[in-house]
Structure formats: structure tokens, C-alpha cells
Amino acid sequence: MSTFNAIAPRPAPQSNSGPVAWCKANLFHNWKTSTGTLLIGLILLWLLPHLFQWAVTNAVWYGNYETCHAASGACWAVVREKFRFILFGRYPHEEHWRALLCTAMLLGLILASCTRAFWRPWLVALWAGVLVLYLALMRGGFAGLRFVETDLWSGLPLTILLASLSMVMAFPIAVCIALGRRSGMPAIRSLCTVYVELIRGVPLISVLFMASFMFPLLMPQGFNIDVLIRVLAGITLFAAAYMAEVIRGGLQAIPKGQMEAAATLGLSYWQTQRMIVLPQALAMVVPGIMNNFISTFKDTSLVAIVSLYELTGAMGMAMNSEADWRPFRIEGYLFIALIYFVFCYSMSLYSQWIEAQVNKSKQR
After folding, report:
1. 340 lies in a domain?
2. Residue 339, in any domain of the structure
């Protein structure tokens, strides 16, 4: 006859969600993590009050440079004073409404392109129409609008234009290069490999320098391509090389059996790539593609080397225009850093949304 043995009570399961559980898992997981958390916390407790005092309590929000020189905190008045110069650079002051309108149109087009309701065939025509209107308004020379050379396009409008156009044009090029590197034709595969390795072997500054200064020397006498177009082409080709490697990684992750199954169904090469391979490959590398987009957006600051002053370059000109404001350059950099952060963080959030959408098919 068996006897009954009571099982000792077990502790209640701990919650794996909530702020307390997150702190235990990430901040106080073991003694090393706890020590690091306490040290960083003590440093922040000492640093944050001083930073708050400099940035807020003792800061100058209104006034002139004399008030800023007399204060012990940050001078945010320099942003107020140079706001339009930082955003629009050398674009004629009385024509800033055109630059603002063009920037708003382009940003609205980008937001529409990120919305599922606008994913229609006519979106390509909408892009073409908005870009034509953007270039027409920025350039002027008709309907009484003052003609503005592309050399004077600067600030935020130039940053948005270079980043958005280079991303849009680099993506299809990158897809073709990635497919070419996996092609069974040696000539195509070798050509794509040379392109990728050549572009990735030099910094973007070298590409911009070649596009701006060396490329015109190879053109026939009297034939010249606008510097904005040359710079845009350089950024596009540079971004396409890096993006092609990201996409190639996704293509290699697709099991070979899927392509063999598509061949047994009678699908052609391009049908297989369009309906089976590319949708899965692109879904796998969404974070890498978005990382490339963010990098391209920030790399537009390098165009100052060819005398195109985007957001960072326009801020530098704004600070250098008057010697009395130069000591407060850090406040200007913090202002444009905030602008870059807003755009880059927005792209990161959109990338997470895209990942959630493409992963729905894997949820059970």
C-alpha cells in the first residue's frame, strides 16, 4: 500500500512583463550588471543637474549676442536669430516660401509613400509630378518667379532632395546588382562584383570629389552637367553598392528548393524572382535596408566638400557669417542634431512597423 507524500510548495511564477521585470532582466540581472547600473546612475545623477542648469535654467532664449556672452548657460537665441539661414542656407531670403513649400510637398510625398493606402501603380506618376513641380518651383524662371541657380539650393530642402531621390533611385539599381552577383552568367556576375567592390573600396568623399571635379574633365568641351545632378548620381551609385550587398544576403537565405519548385511549375526566371524570391528576401533584410537609408540620409552632409551646403553646411555658414555668434556654434549643432534625430528615429520606427507587417505571415 503506497503512502501519500505531499509535494513541497513551489514559489509563484514571476511576471516577465512590466517595468519591474524589465529592470531585473536588463539592469540588475547579476552583480556585474547591477554594479554597472549603479555607477552609470551615479554619473547621471551628477551630470544631469549641471546639464539641465546649462541648457534650461541659465540658458538665454531671447536676446542678442551681448546677452549670450554675459550668460553662463546655453545661447538658444542663436537658433532663433539664424533659424531661416540654417534651414534654407543661401537660397534668396525673399524666396524662402518657395523652399518651404517644396520641402513640405516632398515630405508629404514621402509620408504618402509610407502609407499602405497609397501603394498603387499611380504612386510612380505622383512621384514624377511632385518632383517636376519641386524642381520647377525651386529653380523658378517662369510666371514671374525669380530664377535661382542650383548652387544656391541649400539647407533642409537640399538635404531632403538628395536623401529621398538617392534612396528611391538606388533601390532598383541595388536589386539588379544583387541579382547580377548571383547570376549564372560569368560576365554579368563579374561586372556586378567589380562595381560593388570598387565603390565599397573608396569613401563617399572620393566619389563626390570625382563626380564634381574629375568627371567634367572627361566631358567634351562646352558640355557640362549640373553639379547637383553629378552629386546626386554619386550618392545614388554609392548607396546602391552597399544596399546590393544587403539584398544579396537576403537572396542567399532563400532555400534552393523554392526555386527548384518554381521551375517545376513552369515559372520563368523573372517570374520566380518577382513572385517568390524577392518578396521573401526583401522581407528578411528590412532592418539592413533601413539602416542603409539612414546612413544615406546622414551622408548627405558630405556634399559640402563640393560647395553644396545642405543642412550641416548651411549651419556652418550661418555661424560664420557673424563673428559675434561663433562661440555658440555648439547650440547650432545641437539644433540640427535634433532635426537629424527626428528624421532618423522616424525611419527606424517605420522599419519596425514594416517588420511587424511582414512577420504576420509567420505568426501562428
Report:
1. yes
2. yes
Query: 239: domain range?
Result: 163-362
CA 206 to chain CA centroid, nearest Å? 20
How big is the CA angle at 317 (ends 96 and 227), to the nearest 5 degrees? 75
Q: Are 139 and 148 in contact (CB under 8 A)?
A: yes
Domain-located, residue 50 = no
CA angle 241, 246, 250 (to 5 degrees): 140
Cα-Cα-Cα-Cα dihedral sign, residues 197, 204, 216, 227: positive
pLDDT in tens, 38-85: 999 999 999 999 899 988 888 888 888 888 888 888 889 888 888 888
Residue 311 lies in a domain: yes
Residue 296, Cβ density class (10 Å: 0-12 exposed, 13-18 middle, ≥19 buried): buried
CATH number, domain at 265?
Answer: 1.10.3720.10
pTM for the full predicted model = 0.85
Please report where in the chains the cell 497609397 appears, as a residue. Answer: 118
Total number of domains in the chain: 1
Q: How far is CA 233 from CA 37, 168, 236, 314, in A?
A: 47, 12, 5, 22
Nearest-angstrom CA–CA distance, 68 and 159:
30
Cα–Cα distance for residue pair 341/335, rounded to 1 Å: 10
Relative orientation angle of helices 156-181 and 286-299, to the nearest 10 degrees: 140
